[in-house]
Specification:
The chain is built from 14 helices and six strands. It is of the alpha+beta class. Helix 6 (about 60-70) packs antiparallel against helix 7 (about 85-100). The radius of gyration is 29 Å and the shape is elongated.
Length: about 290
């Protein structure tokens, strides 16, 4: 496409904003030397695209305004003479749509940068009351620290639900002192979803996004930690049909993903202590 004002106006009329931004980037030097084109970009482009975005589905509108904001953020004054009020209208629209699509963190970052705008002042105050407040400290330049303001007494539950779980955790921690031992680990934290999704049935895929493993041993490799062995502690409740189905799904997913899983179940209501569990691990479990 040639760089002519008629073509630019046609793109504006047809709301071809991606093409407009591409042309602006490609022909920026020519645009700033052409008084008609420069006037068009200074005065009409941002307001026109803001109006266009208002007529779109809100998530698509968010994409438009974010792209427009990032595109012109560092050049609206240095290269063009876009009026500050015009650019501020873009900032306000971007913050507003980010809130509507529940991108509150994104809206907060922009609002902090433009904290003198009315919408920013209101949202920052609401965000602080709803979320976390910044804590000032000696390393503010490089590290951000935020904290919430609890309004009720702490509601909590223990990490482990039984004595057997506690004993088993300590047995693993004692036997693998150089590993990380984590209880209640989501399958999505140890298996790459994108690599396995095509190998799972619809039923397995649905369960993959919900399931956790009772305990996972992570081994250090290349200055990071990788899942090595998975453990499940079973009980009489695992004999129920519904739970058996879940257990089988978990077994299949872990098998397909190349992970080893050990299922441990105490017989006749026996509750072995950590030393007995360590002996079992030493005898039959390998890393």
């Amino acid at each position: 496409m040639s760089l002519e004002s008629n073509n630019i106006y046609a793109l504006l009329k047809d709301n071809k904003w991606d093409e407009l931004l591409r042309i602006e980037k490609e022909f920026r030097n020519e645009i700033v030397k052409d008084s008609k084109l420069l006037h068009l970009f200074n005065i009409y482009l941002i307001p026109q695209l803001i109006e266009h975005s208002k007529k779109q589905e809100k998530h698509y509108s968010h994409i438009i305004l974010k792209k427009l904001y990032l595109h012109f953020l560092h050049i609206y004054k240095s290269i063009y003479s876009i009026d500050t009020k015009i650019f501020e209208s873009l900032v306000e629209a971007y913050i507003d749509i980010s809130i509507k699509v529940q991108k509150e963190k994104e809206a907060y970052i922009i609002a902090k940068k433009w904290d003198y705008l009315d919408i920013s002042k209101v949202f920052i105050n609401e965000y602080h009351n709803k979320n976390l407040k910044e804590v000032k400290h000696n390393q503010d330049d490089s590290i951000e620290l935020r904290v919430n303001n609890p309004t009720n007494s702490k509601l909590q539950i223990p990490l482990f639900k039984s004595k057997q779980e506690i004993e088993f955790y300590y047995a693993l921690r004692d036997y693998y002192p150089n590993h990380l031992i984590y209880p209640n680990v989501s399958l999505s934290c140890i298996i790459d979803y994108n690599n396995i999704k095509n190998n799972l049935t619809d039923e397995e895929l649905d369960y993959f996004l919900k399931a956790i493993v009772d305990c996972v041993i992570f081994k250090q490799e290349d200055n990071n930690f990788y899942p090595e062995i998975c453990f499940e502690l079973d009980s009489i409740f695992h004999d129920e049909e519904k739970q058996l189905k879940k257990d089988n799904l978990k077994n299949q997913i872990l098998t397909k993903s190349g992970h080893t899983i050990y299922r441990i179940r105490c017989k006749e209501n026996n509750s072995p202590n950590r030393e007995e569990l360590k002996k079992l691990i030493k005898e039959k479990v390998s890393t």
